[in-house]
From TrEMBL:
Source species taxonomy: Bacteria, Pseudomonadati, Bacteroidota, Cytophagia, Cytophagales
Protein name from the UniProt record: Ribonuclease R
UniProt keyword annotation of Cell division present: no
Record localization: Cytoplasm
Listed EC numbers: 3.1.13.1
Keyword Cytoplasm: yes
Name of the gene: rnr
Enzyme class: hydrolase
UniProt keyword terms in alphabetical order: Coiled coil, Cytoplasm, Exonuclease, Hydrolase, Nuclease, RNA-binding
Primary localization: cytoplasm
Length: 722
């Protein structure tokens, strides 16, 4: 009897195991087909991919396929091929193609980006607007996964790169790091370009079965390595104009330079007030000046005078449309791409000494402690008494006697009070290390020099901040009925808590602490900034701290500025080089004249365009700096340097060289002492055998082994394995 029960039990157990195995294979098959939605597999392929490696297991696969088809979860397409019925969610987003192996689709309104492997990108390129099918939901902090099913709109069809000629055909190797395929060019489409030329190539087709798109050369920029050709390549890569069209220059040249008595009568006259400019020694456009009156009894009237660009550039004129299109001046290593033609930027709107100039001005009656008692805003006319270079003003601050020494020192003392008030309120002290290059006549870098910001720079900055803040507050508090007036604000959102947590851990690797439990994060951040000042890791930590912060943008929404600790802030002080400042001047005058509020939608669109062009200009400036850094390090191949680990990925370790602030990479494949695994959570590499850990903040002795000017890369290797 007991044996009989045992036999029944074995049968039930065997039946249960069989059922479990079928369920196991059903889940495996469903996972395989769903994650390859749109693709079909044979029974034999499915068996192999699900690990069915014996006769019994393959029978389970057949059984599972029948069940899934009956359950209408899969379907047979004919000829023994099976595919998933699951379509996956379809979303529209923009491609962020981070490296040759994978990219992300950024979908507006979605919290997580969708990860897409390069094989599932189809022919989508970085920046393209695409339709993406999600086939795997994100779990445990991982991104959802998907594949591109349709390209809705190409972000660009023209690319800049170096021409590599073969015997029968040619390829253009793009400069853009996010363009991960070369472009094939038939010899009849070269337009006279030669091997190693820098060219602009336009994609004309991309056959489905071809790895590379087919293009044609549309412009030849010069030989690779030539300074002008390389700078033009960067300008073309980021869609920046090479020069002004003749009609724009002609329109600027036609503007009369005479200031009429009628115009002077409309303005406040500052020509008899002590006024001077302080700018870089090589500056050609002076768009701001300070005036100074000692009122007695410890009170001063300080004027911030800004070039009145909006007087000369009228709404919807040809000059206005060009300025809006460019939105900003761009400062590459060896040249400036101006927003306005030279007639305006270097002449009519430049506050040159000993010449009458039209301004939009803000004056402040204030005491030595920086307390503002009275403000005035309006159009003026000035006559600058002197032009200082920053170095000249700094000498006066440090005690040298000279013309306007008292005025400059007094202004500097007040500026320090203003700065302290900002910090007391919660402003963050970011002093990022910037570099400049000593170039020869051909544009070749002879040295990399860190820029030094002294009191003279900070003094001008504080008074510009005061003017910008005060203008924003003036408009914000001036209502028309019950409605807020439409205005252009410069806003900076609070930092994301998750990014702060990551940054805190990063700083901790250098032995620094960021107190995230503090009631005042800005104060905690300032404490950290003070702690790292002058230390080798200063540049890395400051750069990462800035990346941790939200990006400042232009908007009509009257939000605050976290980094500056201002409730309201705008850009008023640089209309020669920033279009938002031109808009601010026009709106401020509109409201000083007590006119109706401007159309919000129109100005919001202009704000978005200005923010986008600012981002593009910043990327171009960084690209030119990176190029010169790589060019400089090309003369130091084989030399050793001390560096700090600034980034860790599964493909390489990024090292910032302390002396030059140049960043290079040690490829993981070049770490020959062990096999290293990437610990993504802790941003580190761990050796399998020796358990060596390479992590952020580690100091390393490295050698420059190669440079790639096309990709602006510096390859490094460890000097030793200590």
């Amino acid at each position: 009897m007991s044996r009989k029960r045992k036999g029944k039990s074995n049968k039930r157990s065997k039946k249960k195991r069989t059922k479990d195995n079928i369920e196991f294979y059903k889940n495996k098959i469903l996972q395989l087909l769903n994650s390859n939605s749109g693709k079909a597999f044979t029974e034999k392929q499915i068996a192999r991919k699900t690990g069915a490696d014996n006769k019994k297991a393959r029978a389970m696969v057949v059984h599972a396929l029948v069940d899934l088809e009956l359950d209408e979860k899969i379907r047979e397409t004919g000829k023994g091929y099976y595919t998933s019925i699951f379509e996956g969610e379809l979303l529209t987003g923009k491609v962020d193609f981070v490296n040759p192996r994978f990219g992300f689709i950024v979908v507006e309104g979605e919290e997580d980006d969708i990860k897409v492997s390069s094989r599932d990108m189809g022919q989508a390129l970085d920046g393209d607007e695409v339709e993406v099918q999600v086939f795997k939901e994100g779990v445990d902090g991982r991104n959802p996964e998907g594949r591109v099913v349709q390209i809705i709109k190409r972000s660009r069809m023209e690319f800049v790169g170096r021409l590599d000629m073969g015997d029968r055909f040619a390829f253009v190797i793009p400069d853009n790091k996010r363009m991960h395929t070369d472009i094939f060019v038939h010899k009849g489409k070269l337009k006279g370009a030669q091997n190693n030329d820098k060219v602009i190539v336009r994609i004309i087709s991309w056959p489905e079965d071809e790895k590379s798109p087919i293009g044609e050369v549309v412009n030849i920029l010069g030989k690779a390595g030539d300074n002008t050709a390389e700078m033009h390549s960067i300008m073309a890569e980021f869609g920046l104009p090479f020069e002004f069209e003749d009609k724009i220059v002609e329109a600027a040249d036609k503007i009369p330079g005479e200031i009429t008595k009628d115009e002077i009568a409309k303005r406040r006259d500052f020509r008899d007030t002590t006024t001077f400019t302080i700018d870089p020694a090589d500056a050609k456009d002076f768009d701001d000046a300070l005036s100074f009156i000692d009122l007695g009894d410890g009170m001063y009237e300080i004027g911030v005078h800004i070039a009145d660009v909006s007087h000369y550039v009228t709404p919807d004129s040809i000059l206005d449309k060009e300025a809006f299109s460019r939105a900003t001046s761009v400062y590459l290593v060896d040249r400036t791409i101006p927003m306005l033609p030279e007639r305006l930027s270097n002449d009519l709107c430049s506050l040159r000494p000993n010449e009458d100039r039209l301004t939009f001005s803000a004056t402040f009656k204030m005491n030595a402690e920086g307390d503002v008692k009275e403000k005035w805003f309006g159009r003026g006319i000035i006559h600058s008494d002197k032009r200082f270079a920053y170095e000249d003003a700094q000498e006066l601050i440090e005690g040298k006697e000279g013309e306007f020494a008292h005025e400059v020192r007094t202004l500097n003392n007040i500026a320090k009070e203003l700065k302290q008030k900002r910090y007391n309120k919660g402003a963050i002290n970011f002093e990022t290390v910037e570099v400049k290059f000593k170039l020869d006549e051909e544009g070749k870098p002879l040295g990399v020099i860190p820029k030094v910001r002294k009191d003279a720079h900070k003094m001008i900055e504080e008074f510009m901040l005061l003017a910008n803040k005060s203008v924003a507050e003036k408009v914000y508090h001036k209502k028309k009925g019950n409605d807020k007036l439409t205005f252009v604000y410069r806003t900076h959102d609070n930092p994301d808590p998750d990014r702060l947590e990551t940054f805190s851990k990063f700083a901790g690797r250098f032995g620094h602490k960021l107190n995230l439990n503090s009631d005042n994060i800005a104060k905690a951040m300032n404490s950290l900034m003070d702690d790292i000042e002058g230390k080798p890791e200063q540049n890395i930590l400051e750069s990462l701290a800035i990346r941790t912060m939200a990006k400042a943008i232009y908007t009509t929404e009257p939000k605050g500025h976290f980094g500056l600790a201002f409730d309201h802030y705008t850009h008023f002080t640089s209309p020669i080089r920033r279009y938002p400042d031109v808009m601010v001047h026009r709106l401020l005058q509109r409201y000083l004249d007590d006119n109706e509020s401007a159309e919000k939608g129109l100005y919001e669109n202009r704000c978005r365009h200005s923010s986008e062009m600012e981002r593009r200009a910043t990327e171009a400036e960084r690209a030119s700096i990176k190029y010169k850094q790589v060019e400089y390090m090309s003369d130091h191949i084989g030399e050793d340097f001390e560096g700090i680990v600034s980034g860790v990925t599964d493909w390489g370790v990024y090292i910032e060289i302390i002396d030059t602030a140049c960043e290079g990479m040690i490829r993981v494949s070049d770490l020959e002492d062990d096999y290293y695994e990437f610990d993504e959570k802790n941003m580190r590499l761990i050796g399998q055998k020796n358990k060596r850990i390479i992590t952020l903040g580690d100091k390393m002795q490295v050698k420059v082994v190669r440079t790639d000017l096309d990709k602006r890369n510096i390859d490094l290797e460890l000097v030793n394995n200590d």
